[in-house]
Write a structure and sequence with these properties.
The protein is an all-alpha fold. 68% of the residues lie in helices and 0% in strands.
Length: 194
């Protein structure tokens, strides 16, 4: 079986995004954004403040990942994350057909389906980071969300559901790959080894 190899930079960026996004999803369960008509308890206020600051960390990792992906020639380059050319899309179709027949192959760097899924997840996280940054700047601490950014807030909430689905699927498939003997999860978690 082939073993995926990730650069240290890719592992670091993946770890930073994974940790900050996971914390964001968890903290969002206890937070309460400011509303002019609602009195928030201490836990809701603390949750909201944590969500804002962890969000800034998630934005930082998202920006760093984009910058790295734009300049690198390794496993995190844009053509790997977004294999949308004709030949690569044909390879994705072949992988989907194999999956439909119960063939679960190792997601090495030649696997375009895993790359496509990572790229789509990265786009979803980017959308969350952008909408979160807009809300951070434009939503006053006094409460009411301004009407001109209300749609951004709704999009942010909608994307949170997509990120939850992606998170569950991503973690679940990582564990399934590990159970099948693919070292994807352990390889990614070894931050300082190539």
């Amino acid at each position: 079986m082939s073993t995926p190899r990730f650069t240290r930079a890719t592992k670091f960026l993946h770890f930073g995004l994974a940790l900050s996004v996971t914390l964001q999803l968890l903290v969002a369960q206890i937070m309460e954004p400011p509303k002019p008509t609602k009195v928030r308890d201490t836990l809701e206020i603390l949750g909201y403040e944590l969500h804002e600051w962890i969000g800034m960390t998630a934005i930082l990792f998202t920006v760093l990942h984009w910058l790295y992906s734009l300049r690198t020639r390794d496993d995190a380059r844009l053509t790997v994350l977004f294999p949308w050319s004709g030949a690569k899309f044909a390879a994705i179709k072949d992988e989907v057909r194999a999956l439909a027949h119960g063939q679960f192959s190792a997601p090495d760097q030649s696997g375009k389906l895993a790359s496509l899924v990572h790229g789509l997840g990265f786009l979803a996280v980017t959308a969350m980071a952008v909408s979160g940054a807009i809300l951070f700047v434009a939503w006053p601490e006094t409460g009411a969300i301004p009407k001109d950014i209300k749609l951004v807030g709704e999009a942010h909430e909608l994307m949170a559901n997509a990120i939850w689905a992606y998170w569950v699927g991503h973690v679940g498939l990582s564990i399934l790959h590990q159970i099948q003997g693919h070292s994807t999860l352990t390889d990614m978690m070894r931050l300082w080894r190539r």
